[in-house]
Amino acid sequence: MSGTLFDEAGERAQQAQAPLAVRMRPQALDEVVGQRQLIGEGTPLRRLVEDEAPMSLFLWGPPGTGKTTLAYVVSRATKRHFVELSAVTAGVKDVRAVIDEARRELGMTGTQTVLFIDEVHRFSKTQQDALLPAVENRWVTFIGATTENPFFSVISPLLSRSLLLTLEPLSEADIRTVIHRALTDERGLGGRNDIEAAAEEHLVRLAGGDARRSLTYLEAAALVAGPGGTITVRRLERAVDRAAVRYDRAGDQHYDVISAFIKSMRGSDPDAALHYLARMIEAGEDPRFIARRIVIHASEDVGMADPTAIQVAVAAAQAVQMIGLPEARINLAQAVIHICLAPKSNSVIKAIDAAAADVRKGRVGQVPPHLRDAHYSSAEKLGHGEGYKYVHDYPGGVVEQRYAPDEVAGRTYYEPTTHGAERRFSEVLARIKGVLRGEGR
Questions:
Q1: Which of 240, 262, 293 is the last residue of a domain?
Q2: What is the pTM of this model?
Q3: Domain range for 48
Q4: How confident is the model over 291-309, as pLDDT tens digits?
Q5: CA pseudo-torsion sign 208, 211, 215, 218
Q6: What percent of the chain has pLDDT over 70?
Q7: Highest-confidence range of 67-71, 93-97, 251-255, 410-414, by mean pLDDT?
Q8: Which of 41, 188, 282, 302 has its C-alpha lying 20 to 30 A from 74's C-alpha?
Q9: How many CA atoms, within 13 angstroms, populate the side-chain half-sphere of residue 189?
Q10: SS3 at position 166
Q11: For residues 315 and 335, is the Cβ–Cβ distance under 8 A?
Q12: Which CA distances in Å does 84 have to 15, 68, 69, 378?
């Protein structure tokens, strides 16, 4: 009996020394903050917990969104044995040892094992192959956590035998719930500290949708404030060694900073653009908003002067979706630098705006008969498609032919500049227009 009491006391002492993020880890699904799309009634994850149905899962999402927490809750709620491995340090030998022990435990006592592998995308193909028998035969309930797109980083046989659940970054309201719970719960700070409204706002921004980060910073700030002390912006800054960025995403600062960011890229000043990029990221701006502005800018102010700019911008936006912050800041920075150094042209936006202006003025006209759809019955009787010249039957793939309606025939929308690659496109366009008009024959 005394040994049991000693073990329980030791466990409580160990828990008290654990980081705040660990102490505040939810014990049940109903305590999990956010991810309602995954843990609501009737969802596969809830069935896994409530029905103890054996299955394998991949949890894909940014850091701090609850991947480890969900795996832990599954184990705790179902009374299964929980084993956690990190793909950074574990190898095939470790994986096989856990699987062998899980098979013995299942055969002897009927106890199932949850094998949770963090950062599973770091496993090689051989290491992932070692998991297949255990997953296929359900010797373990396998849960793999990854911040990278599993369709690119996980072998198909393993992915096809598992359920893929996508976690979203926590909302600001979710982060506030996490903070308030940690301030009042006895597992956390137990009401020993309070927090100023401005400090809470700053902490929410710093968290960037990452619950673990918010609790790590909160714990550090509470240590600076001391028992009974109030967590202020100044104390929070000291704790995380980060200056509060004066940036109101709902006010003028939001529009001023994004305006300066865009104009700095347009003005080819990478240092200024990177400053504003960092300022938005540090203020907790949604990286998807930043990425969207970069993608727009790549066509609006670079366009055909460097057609690769849009490719780089879109790739950066996809990186934001796949890996999230903080790593995606590097991808955003690369796109910003590329656009700053690219030759500039606004001919694309001028072209589409000019075309749209004509349409709004009623210059639409009828589609020329030879361009109309000629695939349906009776189209030939109407003269649709008659006289159409199939360009692949002519040298160079261009032939004299009119495409625009009468109302806008001869109108020019796209006027290339001589900047960068657009100088070459200008020459190509001049030759094409000459053929279309039958010149030079």
A1: 240
A2: 0.55
A3: 35-166
A4: 999 999 999 999 989 999 9
A5: positive
A6: 88
A7: 93-97
A8: 188
A9: 28
A10: strand
A11: yes
A12: 18, 9, 12, 69
